[in-house]
Design brief:
single chain; 429 residues; alpha+beta; twelve-stranded mixed beta sheet; two-stranded antiparallel sheet; 21% strand
Length: 429
């Protein structure tokens, strides 16, 4: 009952000067809203990367070029050697991919494809229209098996396309719709692909099924060409020595429990061929784990940046509470004179500080959640959409921190008020 009375008294004290109370809350509102919105952005990025990796297919291993170089430095007191890794686009070839197929050392490999995958925006013109493809993949016939992705209309790249280096192309569902309205209308049509200084005249051979949320996010806006055609027509698709170089090899494993075993075996096979570790073999879990660690660091960093505004809001709360103590010195003296003890005065001012920060925190949570939802899916003028994910954890953290700030920054003013001498307080004007 006493606490309820103190809450009523705190509400009356705070509403006496509404503008000052609102301005005090504003720092907490902005801080909490920023924490919610920025942590939602970090969580959304984490979810997006995980979705991208899982959208590639299941039970996959990725082999990519990698060049190891070593450098050393020494001083008068010690010597130190460091190793760095850099990308080498010419360490993998189609022969490496062929060596992984039907290999007795790799009994759990069900499909292998070599590819180049470019994530640059390319212009595709056809039927008097222009569409933008966000990625281009040069690959082999087993790509559909590896990616668990079916052709909606027409056919996929064939062995004949590979041997003749045919100028055929398979379109993502959105690209086909943008150019020809329906997948059926696209088959057999001629299109021109332009990217950078290069251009290719291609014939539409097939259209892939729409993937939507089940894909990587760029599946419906991608185009796929035969790997041999790409290597023949695009200069950076082959090495200066004329080798059939590739950017990546993707291997599909028969079951998830054989992925780690197959990963080690593939590493051995290619290492025997190259004689040096100029490549890296990664599973989907490796990629997801690395992405999650980066996203976790990003989320913590964003949360810490937003937390600064909460601290600023807490300092503002302390400042206003100190002003309130000064203004209400006579009131404090009267309360002590009629029987209020130090604990009562202390609790009174702590409740006022908590009330300001808790109400501000609640408003900040609502604004932060609303801002995160409004930002979700928006590109803000960039080529990729922002994904946000508000978690209960972020709401609890933001709200708890706002309460803790009210308690922390309210203690000193409350303690100062409780220590006022009643006689001196009554003398104040």
């Amino acid at each position: 009952m006493i606490v309820f009375s103190m809450i009523q008294s705190a509400v009356m004290a705070l509403t006496t000067n509404k503008l000052r109370t609102i301005l005090t809350m504003l720092g907490i509102v902005i801080g909490v809203a920023a924490v919610i919105a920025l942590m939602a952005a970090g969580q959304g990025a984490k979810q997006g990367v995980t979705k991208e990796v899982s959208g590639l297919g299941s039970n996959l291993l990725f082999i990519q070029s990698q060049n190891n170089t070593s450098s050393s430095s020494s001083s008068s007191s010690s010597s130190r050697s460091t190793s760095t890794r850099s990308f080498n686009p010419f360490s993998l070839t189609t022969d490496d991919a062929a060596a992984l197929e039907n290999n007795p050392q790799l009994p759990y490999v069900s499909a292998v494809v070599a590819q180049y995958s470019l994530t640059l925006s390319t212009q595709l013109t056809g039927n008097g229209r222009t569409a933008t493809a966000t990625s281009m993949t040069a690959t082999q016939p087993d790509y559909t098996t590896v990616r668990d992705w079916k052709v909606a209309t027409g056919s996929f790249i064939t062995d004949q396309d590979m041997s003749t280096k045919a100028t055929n192309v398979v379109l993502g569902a959105q690209v086909a719709q943008d150019l020809f309205d329906t997948p059926a209308n696209a088959i057999g049509q001629n299109v021109r692909l332009s990217f950078g200084p290069f251009s290719l005249d291609l014939t539409v051979e097939g259209v892939m099924e729409a993937r939507g949320a089940a894909g990587t996010g760029t599946d419906d806006t991608t185009i796929i060409v035969p790997l041999t055609t790409f290597q023949e027509r695009v200069p950076f698709g082959r090495s200066p020595t004329g080798q059939s170089n590739i950017q990546e090899i993707i291997v599909k494993v028969t079951s998830s429990d054989k992925v780690d075993q197959t990963k080690a075996a593939i590493n051995t096979v290619i290492l025997d061929r190259h004689g040096t570790q100029d490549f890296v073999v990664q599973s989907q879990s490796d990629l997801t784990s690395a992405a999650r660690n980066v996203s976790k660091t990003l989320t913590i960093l964003l949360g810490a940046i937003a937390g600064i505004s909460l601290i600023v809001g807490g300092i503002g709360t302390m400042n206003i509470m100190l002003v309130s103590v000064t203004e209400r010195t006579r009131e404090i003296g009267i309360r002590k004179a009629v029987g209020a003890n130090r604990q009562d005065i202390l609790l009174q001012f702590i409740i006022e500080a908590l009330l300001v920060t808790l109400v501000g925190g609640a408003i900040g949570v609502l604004i932060g959640v609303l801002a995160a939802r409004l930002a979700n899916g928006e590109s803000f003028g960039t080529s990729s959409a922002v994904n946000t994910l508000v978690t209960p954890f972020s709401i609890v953290v933001a709200f708890t921190v706002s309460a803790a700030i009210g308690l922390f920054f309210g203690i000193y003013p409350a303690f100062r008020a409780s220590r006022l001498d009643p006689i001196e307080a009554l003398r104040s004007e």
